[in-house]
């Protein structure tokens, strides 16, 4: 167990000097038998705390002997980005879940997080990254690509990943993240940091690049009191499915709706506005107006589908919303 990191209280944020000295914490439990190695992350984004709450609850149950770890290993990171968490905001200096890779010349706080976090991820077989989102919507799981040998995100464990996704207790999965982000990169200005496909690589993409399976579970809206329970159940189900815990293996969900992202639309100006308060997975018709640019130009859906991750508070030049279509993958 690495306990160098204090239990941060987001209601009493640290001053700027103290935040720069924040260490990191991981808590590991190992079973007596060999087995899978699972890592569970919370607060990759500092204002998404459902995972932190759920992780600490599970740690308490293991320590109290109410949950047995019989094989393999589980490592918990309650707060992946302590600076963002202390500030009670999405990021510290930048978005940790973009361009995640070790660097010999760390500049931003998230560079230092990556230098600690990436080797930890690489030492495991599976990742469950717990998140929440801005607006109302049902929980869902983000899948990686189908098996492929392409240059963008080659992968050979889609079946293992889908099997885990089917057992987290949610009924909707979404894929197509990096392909869609790369298409958005092609439309961005070359001077922007986000105009680099590597800026779409986060925890799950890094984990897959090291041969592991990786899922992002979006547990609900940030302040939804049900979100920590969604995260808690998913952790227990993942531990049981991977045979790390001694709980019975969970059955897959009976129904799973599959969607694929196909477009990301950036907010170009602070005056860009939505025509109504969208929630994730609100349906849209082809050519339906989703928002209006600051000059009055309408922003329309290219085809029928669903709005995903609408963010009315997005900064200019950042992702404003995604569009998805139905998929036959699962």
Characterise this structure.
- By secondary structure, the chain is of the alpha/beta class.
- It folds into two domains: 16-255, Aminopeptidase (3-Layer(aba) Sandwich), CATH 3.40.630; 262-323, OB fold (Dihydrolipoamide Acetyltransferase, E2P), CATH 2.40.50.
- The protein is built from eight helices and 14 strands.
- It has helices spanning 16-19, 50-63, 82-87, 109-122, 158-165, 177-187, 203-209, 227-241; strands at 27-30, 33-41, 71-77, 126-133, 140-142, 172-175, 213-221, 257-267, 273-274, 282-284, 289-292, 298-300, 305-308, 318-326.
- The chain has an eleven-stranded mixed β-sheet, with helices on both faces.
- Helix 2 links the parallel strand 2 and strand 3 (71-77).
- The longest helix has 15 residues, at 227-241.
